[in-house]
Amino acid sequence: MDIIILCVHVPQGITRARRAGNFIQMYDPPKSKQYKKIVSEVAKKQWKHGILEGALEVKLDIYRPIPKSVSKKRRKEKESKTIRPIVRPDVDNYAKSVLDGLDKIVWQDDSQIVSLITNKYYSDNPRVEVSVKQLF
Fold this sequence. Notes:
Helix 1 (30-46) crosses helix 3. The chain has a 4-stranded mixed β-sheet, covered by helices on one side. A two-stranded antiparallel sheet has the order 2-3. The protein has 136 residues and is an alpha+beta fold. The protein has a single domain (2-134), classed as CATH 3.30.1330.70. It is built from 3 helices and 6 strands, in the order E-E-E-H-E-H-H-E-E.
């Protein structure tokens, strides 16, 4: 069961806080909020299995754009997955924004995920590939 999100991935930003009367209100940065909305819209179009229940295994393959300043040799190595991104943002921030965007579409809550495999790669076709497997 797969979903492919064809756009440059936006990692989860730092949650912000603001005072609203006598309490503190937490909110997502605008870029993170917009990206989660895109993920949700794509998932609604591609996901035809209903909301999954029980324990889930999720695999995320995140393809970042190859920098334009890279030599031809380095470009080939990045395209063939010989060289992988070891730069920021962190892989967990990538995962968080996608998982939150899939809540209430693929699963009820991302707490159902008991196994998460996240990979970062380079590609001329930036995207996120999501695979979901129901364990029991």
